[in-house]
Amino acid sequence: MLKKFLNYFTKGEIALWLCSVTAITVSFLIFDRMGWLKLAASLIGITALIFNAKGNPAGQILIIIFSALYGIISYSFAYYGEMITYMGMSAPMALLAFISWIRNPYNGNRSEVRVNRIKRGEVVFMLILTAAVTVAFYFILERFGTANLIPSTVSVTTSFIAVYLTFRRSEFYALAYAANDIILIVLWVMAAFSDISCLSVIICFAMFLMNDLYGFISWRKMRKRQADGDVQVLKENLQ
To answer: Considering 6, 17, 105, 232, which has the largest number of Cβ atoms within 10 A of its Cβ?
Structure first.
């Protein structure tokens, strides 16, 4: 099983995962050592990202688990925006994305989703829908007395775009998540002023940022490889 796991990922991907796990664990042991739920959520989340970077639907199952745990953590810090976003939006959308990815494998390979290119008309629809969701969540979060209201609302915006693009199998989902990682780093830096243990969460999202950027690069390569493969199959069928 371990050999199969190691052969599935490239050496660079394994190195990135090990580096991320080490940074998250060490920062937890230095700055926290109490919030074991944070550590569990962080390790599950970082593992999900490396599977997502391969276009593997298993990553979406891990995202559902991570979203539930992160929602609980956010609630304890009165980050109701994060709680509602992850438990009410990210988790359900991850389930939909899992179904979408399973139904759209590349050449029958269920461990790799077929990359999709969305059209301009859908991008406009996505942005209009995102604006509506953002405005609605702003008033919802304000009603709940959410800490750091503006960054929390922006996080909703980036999260919605990310989950939408993930569901639609676009490589740009990773860039949207990277933008969301930056917002989350800002949010937890604010929390760290009153609770130094939050530094471990900041390190976690810094690692998430690195992995999401890699995910974008990986999906770009995957899209090109799939496109080249489709052209080759078409040529063979025409011969």
So the answer is: 17
